[in-house]
Amino acid sequence: MKILLLTDSFNVGGAQRQFVALTKELNKYHEVEVIVFHPHTSHLEEEVKELKIPIYKILKKSRFEIKFIGKLIKEVKNRNYDISISYLDTPNFYNEILKIAGVVPKIIISQRSAYFKKTLTFKKKVLEYFHTFADVISTNSISQAERMKECFPFLSEKIVYTPNIYNIPKIPISSTKDKKVKFIVVSNTHYYKNPLKLCEAVLAYSQKYGEPKFKIDWFGRISSNEKDKLVMEKGLSLLEEKGLEKVLTFKGVTNEIYSKINMADALIHLSDFEGCPNSVCEAMFLKKPVLLSNVCDHPILVSNENGFLLDQKNPIDIAEKIHEFFQKEENEIKEMGERSYQLIKKQMSKEVTIQKWLNLIKN
Questions:
Q1: Same domain for 138 and 93
Q2: CATH number at residue 193
Q3: Cα separation of 335 and 37, whole Å?
Q4: Exposed (0-12), middle (13-18) or buried (19+): which is 111, by Cβ within 10 Å?
Q5: What is the pLDDT along the chain (363 residues), one digit of tens a residue?
Q6: For the chain, how many structural domains are there in total?
Q7: What is the dihedral of CA 219, 343, 201, 257, to 10 degrees?
Q8: Closest by alpha carbon to 116, among 156, 150, 93, 91?
Q9: Which of 51, 57, 266, 301, by CA, is between 20 and 30 Å from 68?
Q10: DSSP state of 52
Q11: pTM, whole model, 2 decimals?
């Protein structure tokens, strides 16, 4: 079977990482090709190229280029795909256009983000209604699948929960409780990931408990959005004013994320909303406790006494949860990490997920 994998670019992001993971796995069973329409690249593109998977770049000249749709339809029609799978909102929309145009017989769209009924924009509603043309709507989040069914009950029969795919390398689990406890954050720095609240939490910790005896490394793309930059600058200024800038550092993108997580004692994730966060699941596969905002699937991911839920908008609560973890003995941290691994291994078996995708493609 010949399969098209469609997304916007090879930019570094959670959806793109999962897109590449799925592409690599499906390549073992079917003939796969990739189409992107933005030039952004990263190590993710190199991973696909290493497997000799064809990549076609049909680049858009502007955000609303009408001619692009014609070029995409022509390219897909000429390549005779049996099925097309897309990730992210705009690629999903284009995938549905391909189905309407009759150039691909079956499409699967992947819904990767979280939304809520009260905050749905008109644009988002229109995009969701276009999913009526999809054969399957895959979501990687249990809670998002339920919200989609509530918001758009006419799509219920198409919605399928498919967990993420993780290829975690076998690396020795690092020892914990070095001289300083090390926390890691793996996320971009958009304001809704709450970098400012974490900066405020470090300040709150120092005021309540004294000098922090821990370090937090934040890895991920530094947002160039003006609002995000202002939020970051405010947070960094708070830290610098109190001489705490070495406690929380923003490192930017890394290609060695597994080794970085492995060297940490625990992972912190403070997002306001999520699908299923890659970094949390990866940390759990690497036997790390997790400190998570109380949103979406996060309660499920700490249901095995393997971490803490916290109020991501409350710096004092974040500081208190960090302090509570800091009081744990090394053997307790190790036990929490082991419980993380057992929980995620049970919920997100790679073999089961891949078989689920193969069944969706076949049936």
A1: yes
A2: 3.40.50.2000
A3: 45
A4: buried
A5: 999 999 999 988 888 989 999 999 999 999 999 999 999 888 899 999 999 999 999 999 888 788 999 999 999 999 999 999 999 999 999 999 999 999 999 999 998 877 878 888 898 899 899 999 999 999 999 989 999 999 999 999 999 999 999 888 776 666 555 557 899 999 999 999 999 999 999 999 999 999 999 999 999 999 999 999 999 999 999 999 999 999 999 999 998 899 999 999 999 999 998 878 889 999 999 999 999 999 989 999 999 999 999 999 999 999 999 999 989 998 999 999 999 999 999 888 888 899 999 999 998
A6: 2
A7: -10
A8: 150
A9: 51
A10: T
A11: 0.83
* Structure token digits, residue 243: 């001489």
Q: How far apart are alpha carbons 297 and 276 in whole angstroms? A: 7
Burial of 62 (0-12, 13-18, 19+ CB in 10 A): exposed
For residue 169, is it within any domain? no
253 with 339, same domain? yes
Largest CA distance in the chain: 66
| Residue for token pair 């993710």 | 44
Contact assessment for residue 321 and residue 208, using Cβ atoms and an 8 Å cutoff:
no
HSE toward the beta carbon, residue 199, CA cutoff 13 A: 23
* Residue 172 covered by a domain: no
Tokens at 340, concatenated: 């993380």
Q: 337 is in which domain, residue-wise?
A: 181-347
Handedness of CA 138, 351, 15, 338 (dihedral sign): positive
Nearest to 340 by CA among 291, 290, 292: 290
Give the number of residues written for the chain.
363
Closest to 38 (Cα-Cα) out of 8, 17, 16, 1: 8
